[in-house]
């Protein structure tokens, strides 16, 4: 398989995966809705998005999330710590999905399997976080309150 064919098939696989997993990210956001936007701020969500987009390795993402959980623990905000730990677990589980996707994508000659797996895991995490942020910002308790007043 040429590198161009690999990149096209990879892009198609990622788009399909993203479409199927959007609901999971939305469910994660909804299950932590009580923390938004006061305990988990928009700035934290945007910071997460920036880290995920700029990470060179998946470990960079995990390190950021672990740091956020540790900060919350030191501040005594255990509900926020749980949010970050739950997110770390959700993104960590994407590794096996990256492995499954990678099996369907024959690597071009000379491409390292570990690097390809890490890059794919990073991209899956980026797509998941993108959906998570969009859903988290889409519906907040303030909007819910204003909706009730209009009825």
Given the structure, what is the number of helices? 7
Low-confidence stretches at least 5 residues in length (pLDDT < 50)?
none
The computed structural class is: mainly alpha
Radius of gyration: 17 Å
Largest sheet properties: none
**Could you say how many structural domains there are in total?**
1
Helix content: over 70%
Number of DSSP strand runs: 0
General shape: elongated
Distance between the termini: 59 Å
Average pLDDT, rounded to a whole number, is: 90
Name the helix and strand elements from N-terminus to C-terminus, one letter apiece. HHHHHHH
Strand proportion: under 5%
Description:
The structure is a single chain. By secondary structure, the chain is an all-alpha fold. It has one domain. Helices cover 79% and strands 0% of the residues. It contains seven helices and no strands. The protein has helices at 3-31, 42-54, 58-74, 78-92, 94-103, 113-138, 141-150. α1 (3-31) packs parallel to α6, α3 runs antiparallel to α4 (78-92) and α5 packs across α6 (113-138). The longest helix has 29 residues, at 3-31.
């Amino acid at each position: 398989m040429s590198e161009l064919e690999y990149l096209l098939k990879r892009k198609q696989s990622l788009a399909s995966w993203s479409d199927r997993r959007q609901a999971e990210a939305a469910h994660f956001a909804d299950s932590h809705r009580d923390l938004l936007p006061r305990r988990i701020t928009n700035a934290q969500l945007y910071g997460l998005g920036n880290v995920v987009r700029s990470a060179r390795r998946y470990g960079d993402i995990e390190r950021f999330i672990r740091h956020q959980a540790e900060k919350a623990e030191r501040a005594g905000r255990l509900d926020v710590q749980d949010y970050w730990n739950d997110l770390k677990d959700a993104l960590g589980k994407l590794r096996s999905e990256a492995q499954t996707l990678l099996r369907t994508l024959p690597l071009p000659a000379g491409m390292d399997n570990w690097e390809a797996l890490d890059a794919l895991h990073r991209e899956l995490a980026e797509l998941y976080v993108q959906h998570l942020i969009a859903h988290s910002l889409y519906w907040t308790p303030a909007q819910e309150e204003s909706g009730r007043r209009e009825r």
